[in-house]
Model the fold of this input.
Amino acid sequence: MKLKRKKKILLIRDAAQCLVLSSFITYLLSFAVINTEFFNPFVKIVQDFSYLDVYHSERMSENQFNPEVIIVNIEHRDRKEIAQLLEKVQSGSPKVIGIDILFTSEKDSTIDAQLSKELKANNVVQGFILREDSIIQNHSKFRNSNQGFVMFNFNPNERVIRNFNGYYEVDGIQYTSFATQISMLAMGETEWNSLEYDEALKGETPLSYQGDMDSFLSFGYEEFLNTEDLSFIKNRIFLLGYLGDPTGNPYDIEDKHFTPLNKVVAGKSAPDMFGVVIHANIISMLLKKDFMFRVSKVWEGIIALVLNYFLIMYFMYIDKKYKISSRTKRKITILVVSLLLIWLALLLFKVGIIFTVMPIIAFTFICASTIKYYKHLIRYLQTKLEFKSFV
Done:
Protein backbone atom coordinates (compact mmCIF):
# COMPACT_ATOMS: atom_id res chain seq x y z
CA MET A 1 0.00 0.00 0.00
CA LYS A 2 2.84 2.39 0.86
CA LEU A 3 4.53 1.63 -2.46
CA LYS A 4 1.33 2.39 -4.39
CA ARG A 5 0.86 5.62 -2.45
CA LYS A 6 4.43 6.70 -3.23
CA LYS A 7 3.92 5.94 -6.92
CA LYS A 8 0.75 8.06 -6.95
CA ILE A 9 2.62 10.96 -5.37
CA LEU A 10 5.43 10.59 -7.92
CA LEU A 11 2.89 10.48 -10.76
CA ILE A 12 1.16 13.63 -9.48
CA ARG A 13 4.51 15.42 -9.18
CA ASP A 14 5.78 14.30 -12.60
CA ALA A 15 2.52 15.32 -14.28
CA ALA A 16 2.75 18.79 -12.72
CA GLN A 17 6.39 19.18 -13.77
CA CYS A 18 5.64 17.99 -17.30
CA LEU A 19 2.74 20.46 -17.48
CA VAL A 20 5.10 23.30 -16.54
CA LEU A 21 7.57 22.16 -19.22
CA SER A 22 4.75 21.91 -21.80
CA SER A 23 3.55 25.42 -20.93
CA PHE A 24 7.08 26.78 -21.34
CA ILE A 25 7.47 25.06 -24.73
CA THR A 26 4.06 26.39 -25.82
CA TYR A 27 5.11 29.91 -24.86
CA LEU A 28 8.35 29.63 -26.83
CA LEU A 29 6.55 28.21 -29.87
CA SER A 30 3.84 30.89 -29.84
CA PHE A 31 6.46 33.62 -29.43
CA ALA A 32 8.50 32.21 -32.33
CA VAL A 33 5.47 31.80 -34.62
CA ILE A 34 4.12 35.31 -33.96
CA ASN A 35 7.48 37.05 -34.28
CA THR A 36 8.97 35.13 -37.22
CA GLU A 37 8.19 36.56 -40.65
CA PHE A 38 8.25 33.09 -42.23
CA PHE A 39 5.13 32.11 -40.26
CA ASN A 40 3.14 35.27 -41.06
CA PRO A 41 1.03 33.69 -43.86
CA PHE A 42 0.14 30.76 -41.58
CA VAL A 43 -0.72 33.07 -38.68
CA LYS A 44 -3.04 35.08 -40.97
CA ILE A 45 -4.76 31.88 -42.14
CA VAL A 46 -5.36 30.81 -38.53
CA GLN A 47 -6.66 34.28 -37.61
CA ASP A 48 -8.99 34.39 -40.63
CA PHE A 49 -10.44 30.91 -40.11
CA SER A 50 -12.60 29.59 -37.31
CA TYR A 51 -14.46 26.28 -37.44
CA LEU A 52 -17.34 28.18 -35.79
CA ASP A 53 -17.59 30.21 -39.01
CA VAL A 54 -18.62 27.02 -40.81
CA TYR A 55 -21.46 26.52 -38.36
CA HIS A 56 -22.37 30.22 -38.50
CA SER A 57 -22.54 30.10 -42.29
CA GLU A 58 -24.72 26.98 -42.22
CA ARG A 59 -26.98 28.44 -39.51
CA MET A 60 -27.66 31.49 -41.69
CA SER A 61 -28.26 29.51 -44.88
CA GLU A 62 -32.01 29.98 -44.38
CA ASN A 63 -32.38 33.75 -44.08
CA GLN A 64 -34.76 35.15 -41.49
CA PHE A 65 -36.29 38.48 -42.40
CA ASN A 66 -35.40 41.44 -40.16
CA PRO A 67 -38.13 44.08 -40.68
CA GLU A 68 -36.80 46.60 -38.15
CA VAL A 69 -34.01 47.89 -40.43
CA ILE A 70 -34.43 49.07 -44.05
CA ILE A 71 -31.48 49.83 -46.34
CA VAL A 72 -31.34 52.12 -49.38
CA ASN A 73 -28.39 51.99 -51.75
CA ILE A 74 -26.76 55.41 -52.30
CA GLU A 75 -24.81 53.99 -55.25
CA HIS A 76 -22.53 56.80 -56.53
CA ARG A 77 -25.16 59.52 -56.37
CA ASP A 78 -24.29 63.21 -56.05
CA ARG A 79 -25.23 65.60 -53.23
CA LYS A 80 -28.44 66.79 -54.83
CA GLU A 81 -29.66 63.22 -55.29
CA ILE A 82 -28.70 62.29 -51.70
CA ALA A 83 -30.64 65.33 -50.41
CA GLN A 84 -33.68 64.26 -52.46
CA LEU A 85 -33.38 60.74 -51.06
CA LEU A 86 -33.24 62.02 -47.47
CA GLU A 87 -36.28 64.23 -48.07
CA LYS A 88 -38.25 61.29 -49.46
CA VAL A 89 -37.29 59.04 -46.54
CA GLN A 90 -38.23 61.72 -43.99
CA SER A 91 -41.67 62.06 -45.59
CA GLY A 92 -42.47 58.54 -44.38
CA SER A 93 -41.73 59.41 -40.70
CA PRO A 94 -38.92 56.93 -39.94
CA LYS A 95 -37.73 56.57 -36.35
CA VAL A 96 -34.03 57.00 -37.19
CA ILE A 97 -32.00 57.56 -40.38
CA GLY A 98 -28.36 56.50 -40.45
CA ILE A 99 -26.27 57.83 -43.32
CA ASP A 100 -22.97 56.10 -44.05
CA ILE A 101 -21.38 58.70 -46.34
CA LEU A 102 -19.08 61.68 -45.70
CA PHE A 103 -19.33 65.25 -47.00
CA THR A 104 -15.98 66.70 -45.92
CA SER A 105 -16.04 69.92 -47.95
CA GLU A 106 -18.37 72.57 -49.31
CA LYS A 107 -19.44 72.62 -52.96
CA ASP A 108 -22.47 74.22 -54.61
CA SER A 109 -24.02 76.55 -51.99
CA THR A 110 -27.64 75.96 -53.03
CA ILE A 111 -27.37 72.17 -53.05
CA ASP A 112 -25.28 72.20 -49.86
CA ALA A 113 -27.97 74.24 -48.09
CA GLN A 114 -30.62 71.68 -49.05
CA LEU A 115 -28.37 68.79 -48.00
CA SER A 116 -27.44 70.49 -44.71
CA LYS A 117 -31.10 70.93 -43.82
CA GLU A 118 -31.75 67.20 -44.28
CA LEU A 119 -28.56 66.06 -42.50
CA LYS A 120 -29.15 68.20 -39.42
CA ALA A 121 -32.54 66.66 -38.62
CA ASN A 122 -32.79 65.34 -35.04
CA ASN A 123 -33.41 61.75 -36.16
CA VAL A 124 -30.38 61.57 -38.50
CA VAL A 125 -27.18 59.82 -37.36
CA GLN A 126 -24.01 60.63 -39.30
CA GLY A 127 -20.93 58.45 -39.61
CA PHE A 128 -17.30 59.48 -39.22
CA ILE A 129 -13.90 57.79 -39.46
CA LEU A 130 -12.03 57.51 -36.16
CA ARG A 131 -8.27 57.04 -36.11
CA GLU A 132 -5.75 57.10 -33.28
CA ASP A 133 -4.37 60.42 -34.51
CA SER A 134 -7.27 62.02 -36.38
CA ILE A 135 -10.99 62.14 -37.12
CA ILE A 136 -12.46 62.40 -40.62
CA GLN A 137 -16.00 63.73 -40.41
CA ASN A 138 -18.54 65.87 -42.21
CA HIS A 139 -17.81 69.54 -42.80
CA SER A 140 -19.16 71.69 -39.94
CA LYS A 141 -21.84 72.97 -42.31
CA PHE A 142 -23.45 69.50 -42.41
CA ARG A 143 -22.64 68.20 -38.92
CA ASN A 144 -25.22 67.48 -36.23
CA SER A 145 -24.93 66.11 -32.67
CA ASN A 146 -25.81 62.49 -33.55
CA GLN A 147 -22.59 60.94 -34.81
CA GLY A 148 -20.84 57.59 -34.61
CA PHE A 149 -17.64 56.03 -35.94
CA VAL A 150 -18.20 53.62 -38.81
CA MET A 151 -15.33 51.20 -38.10
CA PHE A 152 -16.46 47.87 -36.65
CA ASN A 153 -13.43 47.24 -34.45
CA PHE A 154 -9.89 48.48 -34.04
CA ASN A 155 -8.02 45.17 -34.23
CA PRO A 156 -5.63 45.46 -37.23
CA ASN A 157 -5.20 41.67 -37.33
CA GLU A 158 -8.90 40.85 -37.61
CA ARG A 159 -9.89 40.74 -41.28
CA VAL A 160 -13.03 38.71 -40.60
CA ILE A 161 -15.58 40.84 -38.72
CA ARG A 162 -16.53 38.64 -35.75
CA ASN A 163 -16.54 41.41 -33.14
CA PHE A 164 -17.42 45.08 -32.93
CA ASN A 165 -16.73 48.01 -30.63
CA GLY A 166 -19.79 49.84 -29.37
CA TYR A 167 -17.54 52.44 -27.77
CA TYR A 168 -13.89 53.31 -28.23
CA GLU A 169 -11.63 55.63 -26.29
CA VAL A 170 -8.91 57.80 -27.84
CA ASP A 171 -6.86 60.23 -25.72
CA GLY A 172 -9.30 59.94 -22.84
CA ILE A 173 -12.35 60.73 -25.00
CA GLN A 174 -14.99 58.03 -25.45
CA TYR A 175 -16.57 57.80 -28.91
CA THR A 176 -19.76 55.94 -29.86
CA SER A 177 -20.11 53.68 -32.88
CA PHE A 178 -22.49 54.41 -35.76
CA ALA A 179 -24.70 51.36 -35.08
CA THR A 180 -24.70 51.99 -31.32
CA GLN A 181 -25.76 55.63 -31.77
CA ILE A 182 -28.60 54.59 -34.10
CA SER A 183 -29.78 51.86 -31.71
CA MET A 184 -29.62 54.24 -28.74
CA LEU A 185 -31.72 56.83 -30.57
CA ALA A 186 -34.23 54.20 -31.72
CA MET A 187 -34.66 52.58 -28.29
CA GLY A 188 -34.72 55.77 -26.25
CA GLU A 189 -32.62 56.67 -23.24
CA THR A 190 -34.87 54.94 -20.68
CA GLU A 191 -34.86 51.51 -22.36
CA TRP A 192 -31.16 51.81 -23.24
CA ASN A 193 -30.18 52.51 -19.64
CA SER A 194 -32.48 49.81 -18.25
CA LEU A 195 -30.67 47.23 -20.41
CA GLU A 196 -27.29 48.53 -19.15
CA TYR A 197 -25.95 48.54 -22.71
CA ASP A 198 -23.25 51.09 -21.86
CA GLU A 199 -21.66 48.45 -19.63
CA ALA A 200 -22.43 45.52 -21.96
CA LEU A 201 -20.73 47.20 -24.93
CA LYS A 202 -17.43 47.95 -23.22
CA GLY A 203 -14.49 46.51 -25.14
CA GLU A 204 -14.96 44.15 -28.09
CA THR A 205 -18.40 42.56 -28.32
CA PRO A 206 -19.05 39.33 -30.29
CA LEU A 207 -21.31 40.10 -33.25
CA SER A 208 -24.37 37.89 -33.39
CA TYR A 209 -25.19 38.02 -37.11
CA GLN A 210 -28.89 38.17 -37.96
CA GLY A 211 -28.46 37.53 -41.69
CA ASP A 212 -26.99 38.75 -44.96
CA MET A 213 -28.28 41.46 -47.32
CA ASP A 214 -31.30 39.33 -48.29
CA SER A 215 -32.41 39.30 -44.64
CA PHE A 216 -33.14 43.03 -44.75
CA LEU A 217 -35.56 45.01 -46.91
CA SER A 218 -33.31 46.89 -49.35
CA PHE A 219 -33.84 49.24 -52.27
CA GLY A 220 -31.83 50.65 -55.13
CA TYR A 221 -31.81 54.45 -55.39
CA GLU A 222 -34.28 54.73 -58.30
CA GLU A 223 -36.40 51.89 -56.96
CA PHE A 224 -36.98 53.73 -53.70
CA LEU A 225 -37.63 57.14 -55.30
CA ASN A 226 -40.27 55.51 -57.52
CA THR A 227 -42.03 53.92 -54.52
CA GLU A 228 -45.35 55.68 -53.89
CA ASP A 229 -46.69 53.96 -50.76
CA LEU A 230 -44.30 54.86 -47.93
CA SER A 231 -46.41 53.55 -45.04
CA PHE A 232 -43.83 50.81 -44.38
CA ILE A 233 -41.28 53.50 -43.38
CA LYS A 234 -43.12 54.74 -40.29
CA ASN A 235 -41.12 54.14 -37.08
CA ARG A 236 -38.52 52.05 -38.92
CA ILE A 237 -34.76 52.48 -38.91
CA PHE A 238 -33.43 53.58 -42.30
CA LEU A 239 -29.82 53.11 -43.35
CA LEU A 240 -28.42 54.90 -46.38
CA GLY A 241 -25.20 53.27 -47.53
CA TYR A 242 -23.39 51.55 -50.36
CA LEU A 243 -24.79 48.24 -51.61
CA GLY A 244 -22.88 47.94 -54.88
CA ASP A 245 -23.50 49.30 -58.34
CA PRO A 246 -25.91 47.92 -59.41
CA THR A 247 -27.44 46.97 -56.05
CA GLY A 248 -26.14 43.67 -54.71
CA ASN A 249 -23.40 43.32 -57.34
CA PRO A 250 -21.36 40.33 -56.04
CA TYR A 251 -18.24 41.52 -57.91
CA ASP A 252 -18.29 45.00 -56.40
CA ILE A 253 -15.99 44.95 -53.35
CA GLU A 254 -16.13 48.66 -52.47
CA ASP A 255 -16.81 48.97 -48.71
CA LYS A 256 -17.12 45.20 -48.48
CA HIS A 257 -15.80 43.01 -45.66
CA PHE A 258 -15.17 39.38 -44.75
CA THR A 259 -17.67 37.91 -42.28
CA PRO A 260 -18.35 34.46 -40.76
CA LEU A 261 -21.26 34.16 -43.20
CA ASN A 262 -18.87 33.86 -46.15
CA LYS A 263 -19.74 30.65 -47.98
CA VAL A 264 -16.05 30.09 -48.81
CA VAL A 265 -14.58 29.29 -45.38
CA ALA A 266 -11.08 28.37 -46.56
CA GLY A 267 -8.81 29.44 -49.37
CA LYS A 268 -9.11 32.55 -51.52
CA SER A 269 -12.45 34.34 -51.57
CA ALA A 270 -13.90 37.82 -52.06
CA PRO A 271 -15.32 39.92 -49.21
CA ASP A 272 -18.95 38.93 -48.75
CA MET A 273 -20.81 41.72 -46.93
CA PHE A 274 -21.19 45.46 -47.46
CA GLY A 275 -20.42 47.65 -44.48
CA VAL A 276 -23.94 49.04 -44.21
CA VAL A 277 -25.32 45.47 -43.93
CA ILE A 278 -22.93 44.77 -41.04
CA HIS A 279 -24.22 47.94 -39.36
CA ALA A 280 -27.75 46.62 -39.92
CA ASN A 281 -26.77 43.34 -38.23
CA ILE A 282 -25.38 45.14 -35.18
CA ILE A 283 -28.50 47.31 -34.88
CA SER A 284 -30.79 44.29 -35.26
CA MET A 285 -28.76 42.39 -32.66
CA LEU A 286 -29.02 45.26 -30.15
CA LEU A 287 -32.76 45.73 -30.74
CA LYS A 288 -33.38 41.99 -30.26
CA LYS A 289 -31.01 41.85 -27.26
CA ASP A 290 -29.37 38.91 -29.01
CA PHE A 291 -25.95 39.03 -27.35
CA MET A 292 -23.32 36.32 -27.43
CA PHE A 293 -21.20 35.62 -24.34
CA ARG A 294 -17.50 34.89 -24.76
CA VAL A 295 -15.70 32.64 -22.28
CA SER A 296 -12.73 34.68 -21.05
CA LYS A 297 -9.18 33.71 -22.00
CA VAL A 298 -8.40 33.29 -18.28
CA TRP A 299 -11.05 30.59 -17.92
CA GLU A 300 -10.01 28.96 -21.20
CA GLY A 301 -6.44 28.89 -19.86
CA ILE A 302 -7.54 27.35 -16.56
CA ILE A 303 -9.58 24.69 -18.39
CA ALA A 304 -6.60 23.92 -20.66
CA LEU A 305 -4.22 23.50 -17.70
CA VAL A 306 -6.59 21.37 -15.59
CA LEU A 307 -7.64 19.15 -18.51
CA ASN A 308 -4.09 18.56 -19.69
CA TYR A 309 -2.77 17.94 -16.19
CA PHE A 310 -5.09 14.94 -15.87
CA LEU A 311 -4.36 13.85 -19.45
CA ILE A 312 -0.61 13.91 -18.77
CA MET A 313 -1.19 11.79 -15.66
CA TYR A 314 -3.21 9.32 -17.73
CA PHE A 315 -0.63 9.20 -20.55
CA MET A 316 2.21 8.60 -18.07
CA TYR A 317 0.20 5.86 -16.41
CA ILE A 318 -0.60 3.99 -19.65
CA ASP A 319 3.01 4.41 -20.84
CA LYS A 320 4.07 2.56 -17.72
CA LYS A 321 1.36 -0.09 -17.77
CA TYR A 322 0.96 -0.74 -21.51
CA LYS A 323 4.39 -0.63 -23.08
CA ILE A 324 3.29 -1.71 -26.58
CA SER A 325 -0.20 -0.26 -26.99
CA SER A 326 0.31 3.01 -25.09
CA ARG A 327 0.90 5.08 -28.26
CA THR A 328 -2.33 3.86 -29.85
CA LYS A 329 -4.27 4.52 -26.65
CA ARG A 330 -2.77 8.01 -26.44
CA LYS A 331 -3.72 8.90 -30.03
CA ILE A 332 -7.26 7.60 -29.58
CA THR A 333 -7.61 9.59 -26.35
CA ILE A 334 -6.40 12.81 -28.00
CA LEU A 335 -8.82 12.28 -30.91
CA VAL A 336 -11.77 11.62 -28.59
CA VAL A 337 -10.94 14.61 -26.36
CA SER A 338 -10.57 16.89 -29.42
CA LEU A 339 -13.91 15.79 -30.87
CA LEU A 340 -15.63 16.21 -27.50
CA LEU A 341 -14.22 19.73 -27.12
CA ILE A 342 -15.39 20.73 -30.62
CA TRP A 343 -18.82 19.20 -29.94
CA LEU A 344 -19.03 21.14 -26.66
CA ALA A 345 -17.99 24.38 -28.40
CA LEU A 346 -20.69 23.94 -31.06
CA LEU A 347 -23.28 23.10 -28.41
CA LEU A 348 -22.41 26.25 -26.45
CA PHE A 349 -22.35 28.33 -29.66
CA LYS A 350 -25.95 27.30 -30.34
CA VAL A 351 -27.00 28.92 -27.06
CA GLY A 352 -24.90 32.04 -27.61
CA ILE A 353 -21.68 31.15 -25.77
CA ILE A 354 -18.35 31.37 -27.59
CA PHE A 355 -15.85 28.85 -26.22
CA THR A 356 -12.58 28.80 -28.19
CA VAL A 357 -11.23 25.26 -28.00
CA MET A 358 -8.61 25.15 -30.77
CA PRO A 359 -5.83 26.55 -28.52
CA ILE A 360 -6.78 23.94 -25.90
CA ILE A 361 -6.57 21.15 -28.49
CA ALA A 362 -3.22 22.48 -29.75
CA PHE A 363 -1.93 22.57 -26.15
CA THR A 364 -3.08 18.96 -25.69
CA PHE A 365 -0.97 17.87 -28.66
CA ILE A 366 2.04 19.73 -27.27
CA CYS A 367 1.58 18.19 -23.80
CA ALA A 368 1.31 14.68 -25.25
CA SER A 369 4.47 15.22 -27.32
CA THR A 370 6.38 16.75 -24.40
CA ILE A 371 6.08 13.61 -22.24
CA LYS A 372 8.81 11.85 -24.26
CA TYR A 373 11.21 14.77 -23.85
CA TYR A 374 10.33 15.03 -20.17
CA LYS A 375 11.35 11.39 -19.73
CA HIS A 376 14.71 12.05 -21.42
CA LEU A 377 15.24 15.11 -19.23
CA ILE A 378 14.46 13.17 -16.04
CA ARG A 379 16.79 10.31 -16.99
CA TYR A 380 19.56 12.79 -17.72
CA LEU A 381 19.03 14.54 -14.39
CA GLN A 382 19.04 11.19 -12.59
CA THR A 383 22.62 10.67 -13.79
CA LYS A 384 23.58 13.89 -11.97
CA LEU A 385 21.22 13.84 -8.99
CA GLU A 386 19.55 11.20 -6.87
CA PHE A 387 15.77 11.40 -6.93
CA LYS A 388 12.85 9.16 -7.79
CA SER A 389 10.41 9.59 -10.64
CA PHE A 390 7.30 7.78 -11.85
CA VAL A 391 8.53 7.80 -15.45
Summary: The CA atoms of residues 128 and 137 lie 5 Å apart.
